Amino acid sequence: MTTLSAPIEADAAQLRRVRRDMLSAYAGAIDCADLHPATIRLPGGDAIQVDGASADESLIVEVVTHEDATAEGLRARLAQALLGLSLVRRARPGATLVLLVANDDVRRAATRWVPALTGGHPVRLATPQG
Question: Where are the chain's structural domains?
Answer without folding.
Answer: 12-126
